[in-house]
Amino acid sequence: MTLPEVASRPLPPPTAVDDLRLEVRGPVLAAGDEGLAAEVATWNTAVTHTPAVAVGAVCAADVVAAVRFATAHGLPVAVQATGHGPVRNADGAVLVTTSRMQGVRVDPERRTARVEAGVKWATVLAAAAPHGLVGLCGSSSDVGVVGYTLGGGIGPLGRRFGAAADSVLEIEMVTADGELRTVTAESDPELFWAVRGGKGSFGIVTALEFRLYAVPALVGGGLFFAGRDAASVLHAFRTWAPTLPEEASTSVAVLRLPPLEFLPPPLRGQTVVHLRFLYAGDDPAAAAALVEPMRGTGEVLLGGIEPLPPTALDAVHMDPTDPMPGWEKGVLLSDLTEETVDALLVAAGPQVEVPLAMVEVRQLGGALGRPGEAPSAVSGRGAPWSAFVIGPMVPGLTEVVPMVGRGVLAALGPWTAPGALLNFIGDVDGPAGVLAAWDAETGERLLAVKRAVDPGDVFSGGHALRGGSGA
């Protein structure tokens, strides 16, 4: 990862850490303590955190105590829920882990959910499903609600209902002054705007309230095509996807699958093309007709499109669930032409030996391209497509994978659009690279909010903006 590491700072005195332990209900672990590594372990094991202190928060009061402790000792603050999105080591920081904060409350009459900071989407989907409701989850229900949502939240239901951040109604968060705030469009419109899309730049969110949706029918899944048919499948995809209604979402990925026994034999050790599809509308019979034009574009090795309960939405993308080391980066695309597909095939098609696990093209547009009822700082609204690459950061490939991944995205340069989806931005060159996710006017507005609520850049972990430096 190329974001600069936080320089190691003097550790706080043991007596101060002991005092913090008396104040916090959850565990407090300092550098050198047994159990620290397990407490701060990431899902993306390419990043290893070495904080000065880790606070395992069990409630908002623990987060308040952690932030006040950090500012008192001149330490930066980072936060981690599930560990899916780390981009750099929180070295020398106070790292607040929120995985123990598991409160969930569904209000079926208001069609809302309130979740605490450590809740994963699987828990929300299970709680909402008995009421005929669904939340705007991402491609994996194993991901935390808060980080995903505040980074924009671009998931398979987005073309129908919009970015998940736009469905947020209320934010409970701890800001750099150590105060617990309830932020709404009425109470603090600028901060409410900025946090929904600006993610962790402005404080630690301890709870969210957001809308749920009633969907008469969910029909989806995926089709795995033989790799040799990649050209015909991808070229068909680029003309077929734009014909879909907003109730349908789709993406296509070239997958290089390892020869592992848990994979079905047709996919084991193969390079395949994975078509993902979800219909969220009123007519389940329409889904089969919508996807039918793609079935004859290549040999289908495995898969199917079928009715899905909300708790089975993972069947669309089939993301891995076990921790692994990975490098990732995404860009936006202004168009997906015949030449775009050809360039992608030359750079990363099945016939090319590249150390990448996945190269994906995802359709955006629909409600994702429109602002929500309360405007938010969600980036990338204007682009109709995104491209995303992931590679394994295993010994021998740690330098090769980023180089190859960037090379694949560079091959798409003629069709790259300005900006980025924050949750998919991946590896960037410092804070200026993060700021480039937005246009200049939006970026300046975000920096103004950052300077107002966090003038000392206390929250500098991950993809946080840096207000003090202006970048």
Characterization of this structure:
This protein is α+β, with helices and mostly antiparallel strands. The protein has 3 domains: 14-97, Uridine Diphospho-n-acetylenolpyruvylglucosamine Reductase, domain 2 (2-Layer Sandwich); 104-214, Uridine Diphospho-n-acetylenolpyruvylglucosamine Reductase, domain 3, CATH 3.30.465.10; 217-424, Vanillyl-alcohol Oxidase, Chain A, domain 3 (3-Layer(aba) Sandwich). The chain is 27% helix and 23% strand. It has 14 helices and 19 strands. The chain has helices spanning 14-23, 36-39, 60-72, 121-128, 145-150, 158-161, 189-198, 230-240, 284-295, 314-317, 338-348, 400-411, 430-435, 440-453, and strands at 28-30, 53-56, 77-80, 94-97, 104-107, 112-116, 133-134, 168-174, 180-183, 204-211, 213-214, 217-226, 248-256, 271-281, 300-307, 326-333, 358-363, 385-392, 416-417. The strands form 4 sheets. An 8-stranded antiparallel sheet has the order 15-12-14-13-17-18-16-19. Strands 5-6-10-8-9 form a 5-stranded antiparallel sheet. The protein has a 4-stranded mixed sheet with strand order 1-2-4-3, with helices on one face. A hairpin with a 4-residue loop joins strand 5 and strand 6. Helix 7 crosses helix 14 (440-453), helix 8 (230-240) runs antiparallel to helix 11 (338-348) and helix 11 (338-348) runs antiparallel to helix 12. The longest helix has 14 residues, at 440-453. It is globular. The two termini are 18 Å apart. The model is unreliable at 1-7 (pLDDT under 50).
